[in-house]
Structures are given as structure tokens and as C-alpha cells.
Backbone:
């Protein structure tokens, strides 16, 4: 055991900033991170044990206890709840012989729940030993558990019917489906050959400034949601002092209901990596890091082989495309299961082996980012877009979309519609267009941009998706009229944020927990109007949080209070403001009655 | 201007807040010019005899008698103020909230070192005359609406005085930073 630990640490040259990789590899080999293992890691890396422990304790997928030979992480996101997940849960528990959060007595099967795993278009889904199992039914669960009891390998459990496209690649063999319902002109146009943009740079003799110039002229904006102009970000990083510089590709899509990066990385990984390389060229960066969420571990072998292919084809490595002095290497950094790591400075902290807590800004990552060096963090989609802009020109790009929102947007659409999946459409589509396109009927609400975005009602379905109107990082969850919006959706999101708050800022840490309690009170019909007012009064306090995720963590509640006030009013109707309806004297004295009876 | 009528009670508290109240010393002479006391331990009026303007509550609720008392105050007072840590957050008595009630009672009456050899019949007091202990200690605002909260353990005499003057005259209350900061 000690040898395994030390060999893995040697793989990373005993570098404490690679703690995430070390922990992931060790856990993958030994199943869990024991007290003893943690001590060994701390000693070998020459860092305090508490530093290792705080990283271990921060991430959802790290464990200090064994979690079974087969570890099931069943998704508990909103959309899963639309597919009778209760039955799946019951079947898992009955067949495995233990409840969720526990390991079966024989140590064979561990059952755990987890936040959205990026499979919202094929729920209910679970991760079992790093492999994804989708569209679960009680029957499928029975077969899976029986297979585990028979000692089948994870490959055998998956069966031989794989998903479409590259999901079936021998290095991935995933049962995941792409569900690309609409291909647009930019990302999924199908006319890309690896190296297109690099060849264009060479043939047109573009300097790095030329590249930045074209990106600026194309007005491409960050696709993660905030919409920061990409060209400007690159320019600042280019001018920033410090070497080497880094390009990060943010593929931590943890926003429930988002899964576009998964599909892009499955079908167009070279487009993503070339985008990083172009960014590297423009900024003068030497290294690129793809920060990939732990949930997508099943893609690891496939993506690593793609990187090797590109190196072999001189699209990565040294003297790229025969251009002397243009060197760029990419590695993949896996996360450990933490929503907040989608925030760029938290992502950088995580990549440095620490807890994924957002940093104070300034300094911004473009000045002092990864290892305190200038760092650009771009979304997967942004980087892909840049390749196309370089290849086809900014004039072409500017003809697509609206005035302030150029190009296309890849949308992850899930929930109550006939065709959930990936839609690449030009900016400027209305929500109604999308509902029609996806075959959604009897829609009560649409959650735009994930829980941190807004939940809109029918009167706003005419609004257009664009930075100038309804901005979105790309996820739309369609909520049918048959759903209990407050219980099935808002309460689920409230629990999600309570769980995922990194705890660094007091408003986020305290109010995500308190708001969940108030939501429970509202859902149970025991709340009052002043409880609703209290939630609203917390909005300005949440703006004091350090990161964007914390600032928007009450949005599911606040936007539904704004747009679906009648649902809240119904729940509190007739409840006294003077005497708390949630207090029940008979229930409060029941314990005493029982104690004195004996 | 008619005198405001005030009532006070100590529920599950230690009377410390009332003692702090008395620390206004000679100002109590000014106070009786300003207000008239109704139900309160200060004048020993046991039952409300009229509708009051201001109710001051010390202590949270640890038994059903506290709850009935608090409901009575809510019914009879226009404005209700939680005075001090116990009323606001449960305070020291709420330490038991971490222990199930059964265990608390067993420790207090059956197993504790001062009772284990003398409670021969192993009885947890259950006379119907006794208040029933609640499953946990509740801060007052979890049971009725509380209009204002005066922080402190206890709130200083000056703070209580200023708050009362404010409520009685409608003047503006300035809470000094020291009274609301974290310790």
C-alpha cells in the first residue's frame, strides 16, 4: 500500500500543487484515503497534514472511509426528480441491502447521491466506479446489482450497447448518448479538420496581435455565462508580467442542467484543444490545462489519446506547425466534485491542489492566476468558437446572431420536452421558438441558465436569448405544468446550493442553509408572508459574497418569488402572522409525555 | 400624552435581564413618569388587567407554561420585545437542545450523581400541576411574532432604558455598535 502511494507521488515529482491528481490516483487504486494514507502524502510532499485533509474534505468524491467495491453515485438533480427517481432509490436500497449514504454490510456496494452529473437529457443517471449509467429503471438497477453480486467487472455491467458518435470509441465505450438535435454553423458545423486555424495562422502570417485583433473584431464573448469579451481578456493576459503563462479551459460545467461541454468534448475534442493552442499563441502562454469535472472521468483515456494524436501531428508540443518558438502543451486536470470550482479563481485554486474556494479580486487571474502567473480561463465553447473565427474570419462570424451577441450558442435542454439534448442555434432565438423546437407542451416555467439564472413564466417566453436580453450559460430546464414548482424544483435547488456553498463567505454559507429551511417551511404550508419577505430581504446581503456563484445562490428562490408569487401566496394563505403556524405545542411536548409515561 | 402601559415576564431566563433593567437605578423615577406597569414581576401583578402597549420578554420557552405565557403576552401587548440572549436565541438553556429530552430527564432525575441513590422509585416528575417540558428550548420568535430584539446577555441597563424611551416616545433609537457586534 505504501509503495502505491509513493509511486503515485513520484509520478508527480512530489509536487504539492498536484495534490488533486495525487489524491484522485491514490483513491482510484486504494478505494479511499485513509488517515494513514493522508499522513504518508503529507510527509512525502512535505506539507502539513491539515493541508491534505482540507483538500480531501472539500471535494464530494474524496472519501476517508471505504465506499464499497462498487460505488454508486446516483444523481439527485431536479431533472432526475422528473423521472420517478424515488423508485430507483428504493430499488437500489432494497437490492443492495443498505440505504443511501451507506455501504452494504459486506462492503460490496456503496450507495451515495450526487449533484447533477451532466446527463440531464438521459436521466435518471448514476456514476458507478467512474463509469456513467443512464436512463436507469428499476429493472436495470436490479440487473446492475445482481451483476455486482456476481462479481462482474464494470465493463461487463455496462453491456455492449454504447452511445452514438465517439461515445462508442474503444477508449471510452460509454453508454452515454450525445442527443445533438440541432447543429449550428459554428461548433457542430462538421467542416472542421484538426489544425485548420493553426494552418491559417501560418499561411496568413498572423502575429499573436493579429489573432487578438481578429478575436476582438469578432466581438466573441465568454460562453460560460458572464459574457466577458474574450479578445480583451487575452490582451490583458498578453500584456501581464510573469512567465510562464497559462491557458485554462473551464470544463467544470457543474450548473445543474448543463451538459454541452460533455458533448463538445466527446465529438470535437480537437477543436477545443486547438482553441486552447490558439489562445496560447495569442497570449504567449506555454501551458494549457483542461479542467474537467470529475463526473467526466470516463472520458479520460479518450481525451488523453486525442492529446497524443495532436502531439504526434505537431498540433501540440514544440515548434507547433513548424513555427519555431511556438511551444504549447496541454494536460488534463480533474476536479473532485465541487460546483464552486466552475468559478474561475476557485478552479485555479483547485488545480493548485487546494480547496476550491474563490479568491479575492483584484488581482484577476489574467494578472496573477495559476501559480501566481498570468492565466486565461475560457469556456469550452468560447475556445471552439475562436478556432472557427480564425479559420473563417470575423466578417463571417459577425453575420451570425444579433448585434450584441454574435455567433451561436450551444444549449443544453432538459426537462419536460420530447427531445431533450443539445441545440446549437444563433443568438436571438426566443424561448417560445425553443419550446416549439424541442416539442415542449403545457409548460409552466423555464429555468434559464441553470439554478443561478432565472426561472421565468409564460409571460416572458417571448424574450430572446442574447446578452442584451436573456443571457445564459446555455442550460434550459423545461418545467411542465404537472410539476410542483416550489417542492420539485426550488427546494431541490435550495438544497443544491446549501450543499455546494464552499462556506468561505458568511452570507452564502449561512443564508443558503437558512433559505432552505424557510423554503421547507413554505412548502409544508406553515410559513407566513413575513417569511417570504425575509427571503427577499436577503437578496442584497447575498451580493456581498465574493464570487458570482455565491451572489446568485438565492436566485432560484428570488426569481420564483418574482415570477410565480401566486404559488408562494397560496402556500401562506390564511396563516397567522402573530402565532407561528409551524409551532405545534402537542408535538413539542410529545417527547415529554413519552418520557414520563414509562 | 397618556402613559404607555408596559408588561414584562421572565420565561426560561435567569432574571438577569430584569436585574439589568433595575440597574437604571434612580432613572426608575423618570420611568414611572413615562410608563405604567401592568403584569410584571416588578410590581407583582400576576394577570393582565388591561391591554398593554409594550411587552418585554426575557428568556425563551422551555415548557408549555412558558408558551402559554408568551401567547398571553402576544394577545395583550401591541409591541413585543425579545430582551436578551435567551429570548432571542434560547441562550444557555438551549444547550440542552443537543441532547434528546429523554436523556436530559434521565440524567437530571435518574442517573445524575446527586439523584441516582435517592430516587428509589425511579420517577421522572410527572405531576399534572407541573409544566410540561418541551422537546427543545425555543427562542420566542419561533412561537409568536416578535417586533423587536434587544441583544445582550444581559442587555445593559442603558440599552433597555433607551429602548423603552424610544418605544414610549417614538424617538429614534441608535444602537451602539458594541451592542450588536459579535463577541
Residues:
Amino acid at each position: 500500500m505504501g509503495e502505491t502511494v509513493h509511486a503515485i507521488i513520484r509520478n508527480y515529482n512530489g509536487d504539492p500543487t498536484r495534490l488533486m491528481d495525487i489524491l484522485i490516483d491514490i483513491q482510484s487504486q486504494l478505494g479511499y484515503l485513509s488517515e494513514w494514507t493522508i499522513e504518508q502524502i503529507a510527509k512525502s510532499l512535505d506539507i502539513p497534514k491539515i493541508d491534505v485533509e482540507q483538500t480531501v474534505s472539500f471535494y464530494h468524491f474524496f472519501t476517508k472511509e471505504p465506499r464499497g467495491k462498487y460505488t454508486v453515485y446516483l444523481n439527485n438533480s431536479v431533472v432526475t426528480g422528473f423521472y420517478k427517481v424515488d423508485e430507483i432509490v428504493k430499488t437500489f436500497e432494497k437490492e443492495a441491502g443498505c440505504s443511501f449514504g451507506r455501504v452494504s454490510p459486506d462492503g460490496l456496494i456503496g450507495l451515495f447521491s450526487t449533484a447533477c452529473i451532466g446527463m440531464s437529457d438521459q436521466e435518471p443517471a448514476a456514476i458507478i466506479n467512474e463509469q456513467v449509467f443512464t436512463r436507469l429503471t428499476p429493472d436495470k438497477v436490479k440487473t446492475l446489482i445482481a451483476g455486482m453480486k456476481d462479481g462482474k467487472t464494470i465493463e461487463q455491467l455496462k453491456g455492449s450497447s454504447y452511445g452514438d458518435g465517439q461515445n462508442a470509441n474503444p477508449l471510452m465505450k460509454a453508454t452515454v448518448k450525445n442527443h445533438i438535435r440541432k447543429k449550428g454553423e459554428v461548433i457542430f458545423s462538421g467542416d472542421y479538420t484538426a489544425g485548420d486555424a493553426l494552418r491559417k495562422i501560418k499561411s496568413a502570417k498572423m502575429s499573436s496581435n493579429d489573432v487578438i485583433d481578429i478575436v476582438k473584431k469578432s466581438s466573441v464573448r465568454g460562453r460560460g455565462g458572464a459574457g466577458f469579451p474574450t479578445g480583451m481578456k487575452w490582451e490583458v493576459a498578453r500584456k501581464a508580467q510573469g512567465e510562464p503563462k497559462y491557458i485554462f479551459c473551464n470544463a467544470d460545467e457543474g450548473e445543474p442542467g448543463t451538459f454541452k461541454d460533455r458533448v463538445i468534448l466527446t465529438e470535437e475534442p480537437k477543436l477545443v484543444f486547438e482553441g486552447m493552442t490558439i489562445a496560447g499563441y495569442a497570449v504567449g502562454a506555454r501551458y494549457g490545462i483542461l479542467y474537467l469535472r470529475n463526473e467526466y472521468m470516463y472520458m479520460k483515456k479518450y481525451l488523453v489519446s486525442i492529446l497524443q494524436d495532436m502531439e504526434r501531428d505537431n498540433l501540440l508540443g514544440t515548434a507547433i506547425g513548424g513555427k519555431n518558438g511556438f511551444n504549447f502543451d496541454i494536460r488534463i486536470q480533474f476536479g473532485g466534485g465541487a460546483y464552486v470550482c466552475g468559478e474561475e479563481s476557485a478552479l485555479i485554486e483547485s488545480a493548485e491542489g487546494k480547496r476550491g474556494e474563490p479568491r479575492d479580486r483584484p488581482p484577476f487571474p489574467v494578472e496573477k492566476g495559476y501559480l501566481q502567473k498570468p492565466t486565461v480561463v475560457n469556456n469550452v465553447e468560447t475556445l471552439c468558437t475562436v478556432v472557427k473565427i480564425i479559420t473563417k474570419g470575423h466578417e463571417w462570424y459577425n453575420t451570425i446572431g444579433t448585434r450584441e451577441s454574435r455567433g451561436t450558442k450551444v444549449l443544453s435542454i432538459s426537462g419536460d420536452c420530447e427531445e431533450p439534448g443539445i441545440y446549437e442555434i444563433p443568438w436571438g432565438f426566443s424561448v417560445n421558438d425553443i419550446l416549439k423546437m424541442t416539442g415542449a407542451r403545457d409548460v409552466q416555467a423555464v429555468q434559464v441558465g441553470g439554478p443561478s439564472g432565472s426561472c421565468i413564466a409564460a409571460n416572458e417566453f417571448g424574450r430572446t436569448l442574447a446578452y442584451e436580453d436573456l443571457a445564459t450559460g446555455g442550460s434550459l430546464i423545461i418545467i411542465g405544468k404537472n410539476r410542483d414548482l416550489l417542492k420539485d424544483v426550488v427546494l431541490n435547488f435550495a438544497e443544491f446550493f446549501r450543499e455546494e456553498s464552499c462556506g468561505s463567505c458568511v452570507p452564502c454559507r449561512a443564508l443558503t442553509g437558512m433559505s432552505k429551511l424557510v423554503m421547507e417551511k413554505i412548502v409544508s404550508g406553515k410559513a407566513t408572508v413575513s417569511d417570504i419577505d425575509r427571503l427577499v430581504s436577503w437578496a442584497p446581503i447575498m451580493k456581498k459574497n465574493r464570487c458570482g456563484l455565491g451572489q446568485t445562490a438565492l436566485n432560484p428562490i428570488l426569481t420564483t418569488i418574482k415570477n410565480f408569487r401566486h404559488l408562494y401566496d397560496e402556500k401562506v394563505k390564511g396563516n397567522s402572522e402573530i402565532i407561528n403556524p409551524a409551532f405545534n405545542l402537542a408535538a413539542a411536548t410529545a417527547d415529554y409525555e413519552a418520557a414520563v409515561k414509562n | 400624552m397618556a402613559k404607555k402601559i408596559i408588561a414584562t415576564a421572565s420565561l426560561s431566563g435567569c432574571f438577569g435581564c430584569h436585574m439589568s433593567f433595575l440597574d437604571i437605578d434612580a432613572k426608575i423615577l423618570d420611568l414611572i413618569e413615562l410608563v405604567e406597569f401592568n403584569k410584571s414581576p416588578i410590581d407583582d401583578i400576576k394577570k393582565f388587567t388591561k391591554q398593554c402597549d409594550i411587552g418585554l420578554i426575557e428568556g425563551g420557552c422551555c415548557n408549555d407554561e412558558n408558551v402559554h405565557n408568551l401567547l398571553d403576552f402576544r394577545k395583550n401587548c401591541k409591541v413585543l420585545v425579545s430582551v436578551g440572549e435567551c429570548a432571542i436565541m434560547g441562550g444557555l438553556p438551549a444547550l440542552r437542545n443537543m441532547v434528546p429530552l429523554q436523556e436530559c430527564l434521565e440524567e437530571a432525575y435518574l442517573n445524575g450523581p446527586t439523584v441516582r441513590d435517592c430516587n428509589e422509585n425511579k420517577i421522572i416528575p410527572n405531576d399534572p400541576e407541573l409544566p410540561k417540558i418541551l422537546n427543545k428550548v425555543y427562542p420566542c420568535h419561533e412561537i409568536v411574532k416578535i417586533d423587536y430584539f434587544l441583544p445582550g446577555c444581559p442587555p445593559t441597563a442603558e440599552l433597555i432604558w433607551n429602548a423603552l424611551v424610544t418605544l414610549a416616545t417614538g424617538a429614534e433609537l441608535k444602537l451602539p455598535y458594541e451592542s450588536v457586534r459579535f463577541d
Observations:
- Chain B has seven helices and seven strands.
- The radius of gyration of chain B is 18 Å.
